[in-house]
Amino acid sequence: MPKSRIRKKAEFTPPPAKQATAIKLTNRSWVAPVMLALFAIGLAWIVVFYVTDGSLPLESLRNWNIVVGFGFIAGGFAVSTQWK
């Protein structure tokens, strides 16, 4: 029976080095203050609602005031995605 041929392995060649890409930095100094302001407004809205037994900030919304407060907080989280 004939012997099988032994294949030679190719030499390892490392992949070419990636060149650094220039990162375009934009001025996003507005993000942090807006984010913190939305968090604070949302928290204050909910706290005022509970402290005043629902008569403030908007009595006509009743328990929907909580949703408005959490909406401001969610807006703060949405703005935080722009922070770099």
List the helices and strands and how they pair.
Layout: H1 31-51, H2 64-80
Helix pairs in contact: 1-2
What is the overall number of helices? 2
Mean pLDDT across every amino acid position: 88
Distance between the ends = 68 Å
The helical percent reads: 40-55%
By DSSP, the count of extended strands is 0
Strand content: under 5%
Structural classification? mainly alpha
Report on the architecture of this protein.
The protein has 84 residues and is an all-alpha fold. It has two helices and no strands. Helix 1 (31-51) packs antiparallel against helix 2. The chain starts with 30 loop residues before the first helix and ends with a helix.
In brief, what are we looking at here?
This protein is mainly alpha-helical and 84 residues long. It is 45% helix and 0% strand.
Structural key phrases:
0% strand; elongated; 84 residues; mainly alpha
